[in-house]
Design goal:
Blueprint lengths: L1 H13 L6 H10 L4 H8 L3 H9 L8 H15 L40 H10 L32 E3 L19 E7 L2 E6 L4 E3 L5 H10 L18 E4 L1 H6 L8 H6 L7 H8 L3 E2 L9 E7 L2 E8 L8 H4 L7 H14 L7 H12 L3 E3 L10 E3 L47 E3 L4 H4 L3 E7 L2 H6 L4 E2 L4 E4 L9 E6 L7 E4 L2 E4 L19 E5 H9 L8 E4 L3 E2 L3 H17 L8 H8 L2 H4 L1 H20 L25 H26 L5 E3 L2 E6 L29 E8 H10 L24
Parallel strand pairs: 2-5, 5-8
Antiparallel strand pairs: 1-4, 2-3, 3-4, 6-7, 7-8, 9-10, 11-21, 12-22, 12-23, 13-20, 14-19, 15-18, 15-19, 16-17, 21-22
């Protein structure tokens, strides 16, 4: 009889009632569970649970009974909202056309932070970032609204195979790009699929790379609207997985020779196919970030960008393990980045530079002439379409080997009076006896420091004018030869009042190594202006100034700031958290959603890399000192702008250090770029930052996620600091370099 009962139980389990797929997902998300956690509990694969939630597959015994039990318990905890107030849920699978079923592992929507603009909010809803785990002061998962259903008109999505309800279409309201900015092309069960943002997956009929390009431009509806009025729409981006490379006859990895060349040989059969189909490649050839195009006809562009992760297109220093993610997850990571920053155009550095141009296109259409025709003209506020003639550059602003320096003796080393040397801090000093009695070394790090340095900064837009014995103008961008050796940090103005400080414990604000200058040297405008701010007279000997100037980087800063804040808010770190709650929220924020943590890393790399590209050095190609190199031919080769941003960033940090020292008597032990280390009796920044009733020192360090505010970088013991300095026999070893995890692998060489 027991066997009959077992058979009856099995029969009941095989038909255990389950809610619709969308409700399954809602219940899991409401409890803060991940797909991985559910899969582990039920002893099935992650993809299996994803299929259950998407409606692609249905659970079978014995897992079905356990899954039904889980959902029943969750339904008791999180009942569905009443019909008159609930957001419409996705229709059951039966109501969705067979060619438009759901994709694996869609992401949940959540409210946006107050810092996001309406434009950013629309883009964020598109990407549906996952719900972060609850943290202090973060909204509870159950407070988030239910997801809305994405329209599923197959007539508007050629070749659509699967789709996930995802709110606003990924391309916004522009019907040309309704499937989003990009797609990850993969092969599954012999079928080529394009994984788009928002969970949409398209069937790809193309049998070759030329056909894939044709399909992308004619049917896929991929791309991104322009970021500025006279600009250009972003070209669609296709990310090719290893399986896609094999399908289309491309190598899965590059040989050492190909890696060095940065491309596959011209004789490759795929390149021959492109040539026969009258497609062209840029001068960079077919490499990790290939661009395939036909010359524009009028305003119509025909160009597709390829990204090939297995050819190291996604640098692990900035993109982490993104290149190893499954296709849907990779589409999500790149899609969030594209919607909040821009469609990647190459490395994060290349994209950072391209974002500047996208926000300030070099040309615009003129007013109609007498015949009613419009012509291309310079776009005010941009850097224009023509690069500066290499021989017109101020010698002090260019790196060694530049053509304007070709007449210098071969081994001549330029000193401060010949070369503008605005770089980030790399400074440290021995600890005092009093500091050695304290217990901890606490590092604080400035968020998006170089982005904050760019905000509101006037920079040159045109070429420089050389002047001698000029009167210094703190509002005029330029490079100034001036002697600042008389500035004494023992007595400086802090605000409007003179303050007495221990100058021996402070770095000089005028040199990256913190050494006091010994005579005339070249400085960018923010550095010279700070000498005046400290209460000292400045008398430049000569200068290269730019009378045509503007706040060129403001839009660039705003977009990257908004991208950073929105993504950190998705990770549970909001901009309005109290100091203690902020420190709690920052603890382990990356683990709440590792994919969004990758986006944060890429955004920060876009800032630093974009600024670095402003002074790009020669990159092989047989270059010899004194000869021009490729980067000099673009308008965005602007070492003066890079120097001004770094100057202002370093000065901003020094100003806070001086304010802190004047108020507390505390001085930094070490500084590396945007990280500062202090000795303290406690392990937290709150143990030495002078907060009063929750309010920070005006003009000093403030905890928070906004660019320019600081976060906790790491804490080590004072004993650790003394031991590593003794071990390497380096009293001025820069402890800021190692404060994060305490690992010291070699002596500090300043590199």
């Amino acid at each position: 009889m027991s066997e009959l009962f077992d058979a009856v139980d099995a029969l009941l389990a095989s038909r255990a009632a389950l809610p619709p797929p969308a409700e399954r997902k809602r219940l899991r998300a409401a409890h803060g569970l991940t797909i991985d956690e559910v899969a582990t509990a039920l002893k099935v694969r992650r993809a299996t649970v994803s299929g259950w939630e998407s409606g692609k597959t249905e659970p079978r015994p014995p897992e079905r009974d356990a899954y039904a039990r889980l959902l029943d318990k969750l339904a008791e905890l999180y009942p569905a909202a009443p019909a008159d107030t609930a957001t419409p849920a996705p229709a059951p699978d039966a109501a969705v056309p067979a060619t438009f079923t759901a994709a694996p592992e869609p992401a949940e929507t959540q409210p946006l932070s107050t810092e996001e603009t309406s434009e950013a909010a629309a883009m964020t809803a598109t990407e549906n970032p996952r719900t972060p785990a609850p943290v202090a002061a973060a909204p509870a998962a159950t407070s988030r609204p239910a997801r809305t259903t994405r329209p599923s008109s197959t007539s508007r999505r050629p070749g659509a195979k699967k789709a996930t309800p995802a709110g606003t279409p990924a391309g916004g309201t522009d019907p040309r790009f309704e499937n989003g900015p990009l797609a990850v092309v993969d092969v599954e069960d012999g079928q080529v699929l394009a994984y788009c943002t928002g969970g949409l997956v398209l069937d790809v009929p193309a049998k070759s790379i030329p056909a894939l390009v044709d399909w992308t431009l004619k049917e896929a509806k991929l791309g991104q609207p322009k970021l500025a009025g006279p600009g250009k729409d972003a070209d669609p981006l296709l990310v090719l997985t290893e399986a896609a490379l094999e399908r289309y006859g491309l190598p899965v990895t590059l040989t050492e020779e190909e890696k060095h060349a940065g491309r596959i040989p011209e004789g490759n059969k795929v390149i021959k196919q492109l040539v026969r189909a009258e497609w062209k490649l840029t001068k960079r050839g077919f490499g990790p970030w290939a661009r395939i195009y036909r010359p524009a006809v009028g305003s119509e562009r025909a160009c597709v960008q390829l990204c090939i992760p297995s050819w190291h297109a996604l640098d692990t220093r900035h993109w982490g393990e993104a290149g190893q993610l499954p296709s849907a997850e990779l589409a999500r990571v790149l899609g969030v980045y594209a919607s909040r920053v821009m469609t990647p155009r190459g490395s994060t550095a290349v994209t950072g530079l391209e974002l500047m141009t996208a926000l300030h296109p070099p040309t615009r259409a003129s007013e109609p002439d007498a015949d009613g025709k419009r012509h291309s003209e310079h776009n005010p506020g941009s850097l224009g379409k023509d690069a500066t003639d290499p021989m017109n550059w101020p010698p002090c602003e260019v790196p060694d080997g530049h053509p304007v320096l070709k007449d210098l003796p071969r081994f001549h080393m330029r000193g401060p009076a010949e070369k503008l040397f605005e770089e980030a801090y790399d400074w440290a000093r021995p600890m005092t006896d009093a500091e050695c009695t304290l217990r901890h070394l606490v590092g604080i790090d400035v968020n998006m420091a170089f982005a904050a340095g760019a905000n509101g900064l006037p920079v040159g837009l045109g070429e420089a004018t050389h002047v001698t014995n000029p009167a210094f103008d703190p509002k005029l961008p330029g490079s100034w030869l001036v002697d600042l050796s008389h500035v004494d940090l023992s007595r400086v103005k802090v605000g409007k009042e003179w303050a007495e400080l221990d100058g021996s414990l402070l770095p000089s604000p005028f040199t990256p190594k913190g050494e006091r200058p010994e005579g005339p040297a070249w400085y960018a405008t923010p550095t010279v202006a700070y000498a005046q701010e400290l209460g000292y007279e400045v008398r430049p000997i000569e200068a290269y100034v730019r009378y045509e100037n503007g706040r060129y980087l403001d839009g660039w800063y705003n977009r990257l700031r908004d991208a950073y804040l929105a993504t950190m808010a998705d990770l549970g770190v909001d901009a309005d958290l109290a100091p203690a709650d902020f420190l709690t929220a920052m603890g382990g924020y990356k683990a709440r959603d590792p994919e969004l943590a990758i986006v944060v890393s890429a955004i920060k790399a876009t800032v630093k890399g974009g600024l670095g590209k402003l002074r790009e050095r020669p990159r092989g190609e047989g270059w010899r000192p004194g000869e021009p190199w490729r980067a000099l031919s673009r308008p965005t080769w602007r070492p003066d702008i890079r120097a001004a941003v770094i100057s202002r960033t370093r000065i901003n940090l020094h100003r806070k250090i001086v304010k802190h020292a004047a108020f507390t008597g505390q001085y930094p032990i070490a500084i590396l770029s945007d990280c500062v280390v202090y000795a303290a009796n406690g392990e937290s920044p709150l143990d030495f930052l002078p907060y009063r009733e929750g309010k920070p020192l005006p003009g000093g360090f403030k905890l928070g996620i906004n660019p320019g505010l600081v976060k906790h970088e790491g804490t080590q013991s004072v004993l650790w600091g003394e031991e590593v300095r003794e071990k390497f026999n380096a009293p001025e070893l820069n402890l800021a370099r190692y404060i994060k995890d305490g690992t010291v692998t070699d002596a500090d060489n300043g590199e």
